[in-house]
Amino acid sequence: MKAISYAEYGDPSVLSLTEVPDPKVGPGEVLIRVRSASVNPVDWKIVAGYLDPLMNVDLPAIPGWDVSGVVEQVGLDTPEFEVGDEVMAYARKDWVKGGSYAELVAAPVRTVAKKPAALDWHQAAGLPLAGLTAYQLLTRLGTKSGDTVLVHAAAGGVGILAVQIAKALGARVIGTASERNHDVLRDLGVEPVTYGEGLADRVRELAPDGVDVVTDFVGGVLDVTTAVLAEGGRHGSVVEGEVQQSGGLYMWVRPDADDLAALGALVDEGKLTVPVASVFPLERTADAFTESATGHVRGKVVISVSE
């Protein structure tokens, strides 16, 4: 099969289109014929070697954890799926080796859910990691109807999903973003505020009594978070471990088929959409990494693997 792989850590130039053996399908796994995959910051950080102290990487490796596609083969003891099922997955394993930037990927069933009919392949590939990150942080913080939620980086790949999920949970949502993204947030029912100097004051103007929940998807905003949090409020970050020093939750997303199915249900109910910023063919994965690394992408960067 064709796949993007790398044999050494480095910048996107270490990626190359290669021919590799088809993956084996173990017990409790399904083989997915990949239609689309998506790029998350963690992908190019892994390739750069930033996560080497944290995860085992078996080089040469195929990057990528997000995938949408069709089940081509099922392993032993996989009653959840059948050949031909349209699925999506946050197909993270316990080590980095056989990822989703390939024509085929073997994924544990604990990572896989049915693809919502309302999403195309690109959108479905963009949902798992980013959607689960947003959903798990919001739910672990106990977000509920009537809460006022502040979402840092509300127009980014995770934030744009977090604001919709928070709205679906019944919360009032305030989102930080550059002014060019304010209209997009307003269309989603979000009250936008411009990030930068004076941000805490701008949030306080909208929520004089403070906010109940703060989610951080960008880092470097802990001072603002603590300044606007209401008494008894909850806050968390997926970027900055220092939040724990002020009683916050530091979280890294987990693969979870049930949570992913819950996101699919929100899509089917018309409460969640997945904006796609750009689509690259498999052979231009390096360009997709470069675009993602700018940090100024509204929505998801997607890799189209097959039609």
UniProtKB/TrEMBL annotation:
Every copy of the Enoyl reductase (ER) domain together lies at: 10-303
For the keyword Transmembrane helix, the answer is no
**Which Gene3D superfamilies does this UniProt record tie to the protein?**
Medium-chain alcohol dehydrogenases, catalytic domain, NAD(P)-binding Rossmann-like Domain
Keywords, alphabetical: Oxidoreductase
Record has Oxidoreductase as a keyword:
yes
**Per its record, how is this protein called by name?**
NADPH:quinone reductase-like Zn-dependent oxidoreductase
Record-level Gene Ontology MF annotations:
oxidoreductase activity; zinc ion binding
